[in-house]
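anyone seen this seq b4? input:
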Amino acid sequence: MSKNVTIIINGQAGSCGKGKICDYIVQKDNIEISINNWSSNAGHTYVKNTGEKVTVSHLPMAMINNNTKLCINPGSIITPEILEDELIKYKDILGKRKKYIHPRAMIIKPKHVEQEKNL
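predicted toks r here
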């Protein structure tokens, strides 16, 4: 059995089209599993045909394909409030699919934000 892997890597920070490329690939190739390694400051955007924008920081942009399993990688940096907001905002797109978070994904707690302010 042969499996293909598509990797989107970009060292550019901000507005270079990673969300748009991901949208194209996930729709064209009907991606089975999507994983990401993002953080709270990420912002990937997809624009639906209706003009509605879908912007995520934590969820894989591949969520726009109902057949794709969604995974957040180890090394991802999660702000729980931001992830919760995305889950609520895009519940219609996500449907009842399971979302997988690796146990080694990191969590930013309010105390971490306060500690960083004091550096």
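The CA atoms of residues 22 and 69 lie 14 Å apart. The helical segments are 18-29, 80-89, 91-94, 110-117. kinda curious what u guys think
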